[in-house]
Amino acid sequence: MKLAFDIALRFLKSSKGQTALIVLGIAIGVSVQIFIGSLITGLQKSLVDKTVGSAPQITVSPQEDGAYILDSQAEAKTIKATNPEEIKNLVAVTQGPAILNTADESATILLRGFDWKAAQGIYKISDRIVKGELATNDNEIIIGEDFAKNLNLSVGDTIELITPARKTGKFLITGIFDLQVKSLNESWILSNDRAVQEFLETGEGVSQIEMQVNDVFAADEVAGEIEKRLNEDTLVVTNWKEENAALLSGLSGQTASSLMIQVFVMISVVLGIASVLAISVVQKSKQIGILKAMGMHNPKASLVFLFQGFLLGVLGALVGVGLGIGLSWSFATFVTNPDGSSLVPFFIDWSFIGISAGIAVAASTLAALIPAIRVSRLDPMEVIKNG
Amino acid sequence: MDNYVVEVKGVNKVYGKTIKTVALHNLNLGFKTGSFNAIIGESGSGKSTLLNILGTLDRPTKGDVIINGVSTKNMSKGRLSDLRNETLGFVFQFHYLLPEFTALENVLMPYRIANGKAGKKSRDRAREILNLVGLEKVENNLATNMSGGQQQRTAIARALMNQPKIILADEPTGNLDSQTTDSIYQLFRKINQELGTTFIIITHDRRVAEKADRIVEILDGRISLDIVK
Ligand SMILES: Nc1ncnc2c1ncn2[C@@H]1O[C@H](COP(=O)(O)OP(=O)(O)O)[C@@H](O)[C@H]1O
Ligand SMILES: [Mg+2]
């Protein structure tokens, strides 16, 4: 082993140009893999984050329209206990449609009430208030930026809301929020849970329990666990993945095409190594011949070339990882939106990089298999006869 | 008969399948332990073929090669490799040094093939042999940074490393000037006398052959002359 390794090392050192060329080839392959991989992953992460980062990822609600979850605190506890590692940012929401009447217009809105503190996890409302403050008392609300603009409302105004059950209530606007989604800014009116429960006359009941999970892509699995744990026909558990099928199929298409590129990059790297090593077998045939004449066994002689493939793979992977990270970083740093933020955020997935490097090393070693087989077939007589 | 260190029995060698060239005809020949032998003969007479068969690098078409009293006929490739490594030393017309390694590392090569790592003891021994062939000053030169004579002497030192019973040399001085040739044969004789190593040397040089204990002449794959002094 040691001798085969030493000879492999010496062979590589003695033809530095050739070695550098293969290492560069592998390195470029690995760096392209890492670059494309982290680009796509970064892109997907930011896309998913934009889509569901500030939205509920799993929602538990009554089967029946207009029904309420009565013991929301106990249900929330049960839900959390299902998978305490994954589930976070639980919030109970009481909501219902209402009509707003002003002097010249009426608009349908969704009145939503929750405990401000609990809602901070998903909606980060206090960071999203652009004017005024949160509505903490009964008969106080906050409205969206676009809604305020459309209806020419501002902090301090009072509006009247009518429920489908014809109940009316007057509310003071204490603040204006911007959730960065136009449709929500136009249609949501938010308040604290007490105020909404009282106005909609739900008593202690809430409309749904919303939550997020640490691994957003595991939302469907966690939702399944919750469903099993709750084991109640009256409740349904939905998750963001079922509601964003189009986005997800887009993402998996992207992943598949990136995988395809990576596979072809690897194939070309393997072919490159195999062909250069095959040439090297011819170049080193005298050395191999005499080593065998002096008693080196065939498998050992083959090992010399497998080690060369392995060493080239390790070197190429190391250089490639450096290059790939540098490339990804440059892309994130220099390719920016007009406002200066990265078009695609810099994202390093060490396990993905580790896998890429590992595959490169394995593929390089494997690529050396064909030359290694040729070496084991080389007859020392041929070398000695032909000088 | 018993003290033959290497012996061919009824050895035939035929090259080619359609056009058959018979290189050796039913050869019977044995060499005594510690003897110093020369093989002479015209070019193409079958000398190299015989030597390569003696060295188990080539297999006879018919017949057997017996080394140290053991038939090699049914040995596996691995066994033959081990046998060559332990018992035989080769010197060819070309030195076949590994150009990627220094003189000392080349000399250590047969030892490392058997043992993997070379410790201090084996290194000292390799230096001693390099001393013997007069190369102590260039032991750390790459094989490519030596003269033709130095390269061939390194190859001889390498052949001696595992203290083989037999040295097989195929025109070892064919590429060297007469002065270097003389010094190399003196070296062979010295090793033969001091270590009792058996030498079988193919040579064109009559002067060299005359200094051997025994001269075997090959003609068209047959022994035409066998003189023991
Ligand atoms: N690989 C081979 N294929 C066919 N013929 C061969 C081969 N090797 C040697 N010969 C023939 O065998 C004969 C003996 O060759 P060789 O042993 O090399 O002779 P010498 O060493 O005495 O010059 C020659 O006629 C040569 O042409
Ligand atoms: Mg010859």
UniProtKB/TrEMBL annotation, chain A:
The keyword Lyase does not apply. It is found in: Cell membrane. It comes from the Bacteria. GO terms for biological process: lipoprotein localization to outer membrane. Residues 19-228 form the MacB-like periplasmic core domain. It is a multi-pass membrane protein. Belongs to the ABC-4 integral membrane protein family. LolC/E subfamily. The keyword Membrane applies. Its main location: membrane. GO terms for cellular component: plasma membrane protein complex. The chain crosses the membrane at residues 20-40, 259-282, 303-332, 352-373. This is Lipoprotein-releasing system transmembrane protein LolE. Keywords: Cell membrane, Lipoprotein, Membrane, Transmembrane, Transmembrane helix. It comes from Acetobacterium wieringae. It holds the Pfam family MacB_PCD. Residues 261-380 form the ABC3 transporter permease C-terminal domain.
Automatic annotation (TrEMBL), chain B:
Residues 6-227 form the ABC transporter domain. Pfam families: ABC_tran. Gene3D superfamilies: P-loop containing nucleotide triphosphate hydrolases. GO terms for cellular component: membrane protein complex; plasma membrane. The keyword Metal-binding does not apply. InterPro entries: AAA+_ATPase, ABC_transporter-like_ATP-bd, ABC_transpr_LolD-like, MacB-like_ATP-bd, P-loop_NTPase. GO terms for molecular function: ATP binding; ATP hydrolysis activity; transmembrane transporter activity. Its EC number is 3.6.3.-. This is ABC transporter ATP-binding protein. It comes from Acetobacterium wieringae. The lineage of its organism: Bacteria, Bacillati, Bacillota, Clostridia, Eubacteriales. The gene is lolD_3.
